[in-house]
Amino acid sequence: MPRTAVLALGGNALIREGQSGTYAEQTENAQRMAETVRWLHANDWNLVLIHGNGPQVGNLALQQEEASARVPPQPLFSLGAMTQGQIGSLLTLALRRIGKDDIPDVVSVITHVTVAADDPAFADPTKPIGPFFDRDEAERLARERGWHVAEDAGRGYRRVVPSPRPRDIVEARAIKALIDQGIVVVAAGGGGIPVVEDADRYVGVDAVIDKDYAAQQLATALRADALVLVTSVDRVLLDFGRPGQRPVTELTVDEAERHLDDGQFPEGSMGPKVRAAVRFVRHGGHVAVITSPHLVAASLEDTPRPGVETGTRIVAAPERVGVSR
Amino acid sequence: MPRTAVLALGGNALIREGQSGTYAEQTENAQRMAETVRWLHANDWNLVLIHGNGPQVGNLALQQEEASARVPPQPLFSLGAMTQGQIGSLLTLALRRIGKDDIPDVVSVITHVTVAADDPAFADPTKPIGPFFDRDEAERLARERGWHVAEDAGRGYRRVVPSPRPRDIVEARAIKALIDQGIVVVAAGGGGIPVVEDADRYVGVDAVIDKDYAAQQLATALRADALVLVTSVDRVLLDFGRPGQRPVTELTVDEAERHLDDGQFPEGSMGPKVRAAVRFVRHGGHVAVITSPHLVAASLEDTPRPGVETGTRIVAAPERVGVSR
User: What's the predicted TM-score (pTM) here?
Assistant: First the structure.
């Protein structure tokens, strides 16, 4: 009986620091995940991959501003849908192989995620997206398009949008039907296309859903065994930047919540990941893993092999002895 | 036992003549198909929808040219993938309803279609895409990017790309798994993202696949019962523009081929549709229909109701008497 893992890939998995985002760069970066995906598939894991889309949606937003006199700009959530197509295709082509039975079928599903129309985030948009503008231009766009704008780190003004909490994954049933066939599914790219319920319809809204929170919602909806939050560091660090800084290879949800309460994990980085991990395990998931791409496979083995490095596993009750807490 | 129909929607189904393509316009146009989809679902048809993407991919190509100094342009096939995300999301939101059991689940699948690397179309690119350029600019782009350019109807120069024949639908197995669950699938938008086989990999190529041919390939791969080519006219006309011009409500494949040989159907309009219809029936499909949106439902009824208009049905052998041939 195969188990199911939902893997969330960091936003810079495809366009790295200092890269502009050509198709060739993104394809090469995607290859790095391919080996891990094949190893997991060979070890009887059904897989769902969730990718970030920050750089890609920023590029589309910039392009449509430059051409706004000639082509009507589409709403942000529609740009998000475009990046799901773009990155979904790119990942599919990077992972598929022709005529190899040991390599899984891969399919990318356009995914919508509901948010509450009265989510408090809508009253306080904070997530910057798209290009920088000077102050006059930003104020004009705010007037003409109803945007919220804010100064960003002294580098100019940007549009800011709400980051509401994900509720339901609209396409969960379809995704389940696909993984039940052993097909690797690319889904909920960029955290999903945000929609609110309006009478009997789903209506797109301009917002950005945290990808790790969306991955947790999807993993919980699919009753997945594992949620893997792939990032650029091998393990969660405690007392980061202080004397006694140390990596952890296992945390119980109680320990993780205590560390969250103690302010161990900043909101901009590890906080949402640890919170998503805790929520997944509290809702019945077996294990949540936070780690870098090369440690994903080892971190999902039930029994750690001596001397083999793993990432941070968040579990319901202590499983492994002799690990740093 | 539900039957399966593949519906190909015309390229102007979402952005009509004279419209610029705002999100609101496209959503409103999509509503027109929603009623037909619901009727077919209620009458025990499993459905796959294929949409055009001409205006949308043209808009993206124009946007990325305007911003090419700041954002690296993506290849044409990647723009096609973006429009699958964009239009797939839009159609999903137009068709879905919340909490209504009688209205089907809908999901949009990013779809790749293989073409032969030695397809003769690659030696003779003829399909214009994207914005118009003046001659100097067109020649510069041809040099810098390896584009083929051609004058288009005296209105300027455009990029031209090959239009190769579709072979395999890469995601056919996933699409089958979804329709077997009664889920309406949006797939192969714009004719699919064209890929060639390169050793054991699929590699994207800049080309445009005819949407009606792609729909036929997918319908044949799914062993669908019906292929429906939705267009702006109610029925195929014989002797178009000549004395004796007449609509036909039924054609056998033999009759249709004879008319094709006689040059009854121009390549730019009805020719590919009739050819796709013939190929579908020759490969075992029960019926191919060419008609406008409001006649789709009536055209798929096994027994025509007296006095009820239908489109043109292409079948293996004569089924209905008293129809014009």
Answer: 0.95
Q: What stretches of chain B show up as alpha helix (H) in DSSP?
A: 23-42, 54-66, 76-95, 135-145, 172-179, 211-221, 253-261, 270-282, 296-299
Residue B65 has pLDDT above 70, yes or no: yes
CA angle, residues A244, A246, A247, in degrees to nearest 5? 175
Q: For B157-189, how does the pLDDT look when each residue is reduced to its tens digit (9 = 90+)?
A: 999 999 999 999 999 999 999 999 999 999 999
Q: Please give the residue of chain B at the shortest CA–CA distance from A110.
A: B108
Domain assignment present for residue A119? The answer is: no
**Residue A99 within any structural domain of the chain:** yes
**Residues A172 and A155 occupy one common structural domain:** no
CATH number, residue B15: 3.40.1160.10
Same domain, A47 and A147: no
Are residues A86 and A200 both part of a single domain? yes
Are residues A283 and A247 both part of a single domain?
A: yes
- Best residue of A15, A92, A133, A176 to probe chain B, by most B CBs closer than 10 Å: A92
Distance of alpha carbon A140 from alpha carbon A150, whole angstroms: 13
Is residue A70 domain-shared with residue A207, that is, in the same domain? Answer: yes
pLDDT at B25: 87
Q: How far apart are CA A208 and CA B149, in angstroms?
A: 39
In a domain, B266, yes or no: yes
For chains A and B, what is the number of CB pairs under 8 angstroms? 181
The whole-angstrom separation of Cα A56 and Cα B138 is 27
- DSSP strand pairing (B193-198 vs B201-204): antiparallel
User: How confident is the model over A70-99, as pLDDT tens digits?
Assistant: 899 999 999 999 999 999 999 999 999 887
Quick check: A173 and B181 CB within 8 A?
yes
- What is the 3-state composition of chain A as percent helix, strand, coil, each rounded to the nearest 5? 35, 25, 40
Q: How many degrees, rounded to 5, is the angle at CA A33 between CA B61 and CA A325?
A: 130
The alpha carbon of B322 is separated from its chain's Cα centroid by a whole number of angstroms, namely: 31
Q: How far apart are the first and last CA of chain A?
A: 33
Our measurement of the distance from residue A211's CA atom to the centroid of its chain's CA atoms, rounded to an integer in Å, reads 3
B170 and B212 belong to one structural domain: yes
Q: What is the 3-state secondary structure (H, E, C) of A39-94?
A: HHHHCCEEEEEEECCHHHHHHHHHHHHHCCCCCCCCCHHHHHHHHHHHHHHHHHHH
Among A66, A97, A110, A197, most B C-beta atoms within 10 A, so best to mutate, is A110
Q: In this structure, are residues B313 and B323 in contact, taking their beta carbons and an 8 Å threshold?
A: no
End-to-end CA gap in chain B: 33
Which of B133, B161, B189 terminates a domain? The answer is: B161
Position A217: which residue type? Q
A146 and A189 co-located in one domain: no
Domain residues for the domain of A152 are 125-161
What Å distances lie between residue A129 and A69, A77, A111, A206, B231, CA to CA?
A: 21, 12, 20, 11, 39
* A39/A59 Cα distance (integer angstroms): 33
Catalytic residue among B52, B59, B127, B189: B127
Please count the structural domains in chain A.
Answer: 2
When pLDDT is averaged across residues B218-237 and rounded to a whole number, the result is 96
Does residue A120 lie within any of the structural domains? Answer: no
Q: Choose the weakest-confidence range: A10-14, B137-141, B240-244.
A: A10-14
CB A97 within 8 A of CB A103: yes
**Are residues B206 and B255 both part of a single domain?**
yes
B100 is catalytic: no
